[in-house]
């Protein structure tokens, strides 16, 4: 039978998640033998999965007992999910008002490495959205370098983190005006830091524009971004920014005041 990489990869992921699911408040520490027996795997196979999970920070090994516990990365994921869900609930009525006032689709996004993930979206009036928006939904991923929300989230990263992230970017042309170099992206991010507003002028998709601004937590950290998606028109981006920027930033401040 031919080898099916997709099936093999899915099985590996399933086994890795099953191993993580073995750790409970009643059984916070488990050894290789216990995990192998529980999941019907050999010790060597179990050790391979556990070693990978430990290397990625999802498991920690006790130096004395040699047993494993859940690592900090699992906590990070849990807090990220809880924070995103609460933020979505907080932001929803503000996005609804923003869309009602402008007629344009509004989105709430968070960053995941080099991508942004849409965690909520309120679709605008049919005459005011771009056909590409039909392909977008809650959970959609977009490249950060050519999306307004992505730039809003990248701009305020510490320089070392930003440099590391840009090293991992692949500047693929998504739209006719996609950013194509590190220097061009850094110049745009500097502008975002000055104005607090990020722009996307046909960088993600032909005929689609967007204006975004970041959401801050009470501590001042950037936790998300909101945007308005605007189909192309002869109106200059500077005019659109003047028209919608203050309203977008006011909405961001209202959400930020309630964020954790």
Please name the fourth-level CATH homologous superfamily of the largest domain. Answer: GAF domain
- The DSSP helix count reads 8
Range of helix content = 40-55%
Overall pLDDT confidence:
88
Walkthrough of the structure:
It contains eight helices and eight strands. The protein has 260 residues and is α+β, with helices and mostly antiparallel strands. The chain has two domains: 5-70, Arc Repressor Mutant, subunit A; 76-258, Beta-Lactamase. The strands form two sheets. A six-stranded antiparallel β-sheet has the order 5-4-3-8-7-6, sandwiched between helices. The protein has a two-stranded antiparallel ribbon with strand order 1-2. Helix 2 (32-39) packs across helix 3.
Features:
260 residues; alpha+beta; Arc Repressor Mutant, subunit A; Beta-Lactamase; 2 domains; 6-stranded antiparallel sheet; two-stranded antiparallel sheet; 8 helices; 8 strands; 47% helix; elongated; disordered N terminus
């Amino acid at each position: 039978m031919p080898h099916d990489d997709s099936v093999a990869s899915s099985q590996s992921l399933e086994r890795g998640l099953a191993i993580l699911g073995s750790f409970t408040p009643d059984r916070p520490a488990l050894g290789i033998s216990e995990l192998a027996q529980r999941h019907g795997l050999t010790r060597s196979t179990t050790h391979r999965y556990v070693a990978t999970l430990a290397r990625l920070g999802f498991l920690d090994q006790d130096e004395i007992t040699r047993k494993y516990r859940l690592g900090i990365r699992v906590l990070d994921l849990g807090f990220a999910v809880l924070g995103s869900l609460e933020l979505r609930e907080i932001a929803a009525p503000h996005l609804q008002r923003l869309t009602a006032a402008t007629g344009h689709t509004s989105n709430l996004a968070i960053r995941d490495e080099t991508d942004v993930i849409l965690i909520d979206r309120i679709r605008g009036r049919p005459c005011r959205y771009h056909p590409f928006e039909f392909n977008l939904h809650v959970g959609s991923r977009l490249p950060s370098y050519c999306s307004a929300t992505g730039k809003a989230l990248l701009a305020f990263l510490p320089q070392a983190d930003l440099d590391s992230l840009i090293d991992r970017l692949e500047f693929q042309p998504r739209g006719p005006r996609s950013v194509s170099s590190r220097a061009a992206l850094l110049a745009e991010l500097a502008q975002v830091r000055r104005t607090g507003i990020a722009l996307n002028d046909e960088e993600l998709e032909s005929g689609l524009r967007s204006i975004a601004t970041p959401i801050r937590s009470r501590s001042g950290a950037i936790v998300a971004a909101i945007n308005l998606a605007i189909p192309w028109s002869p109106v200059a981006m500077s005019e659109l920014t003047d028209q919608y920027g203050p309203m977008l930033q006011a909405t961001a401040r209202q959400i930020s005041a309630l964020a954790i």
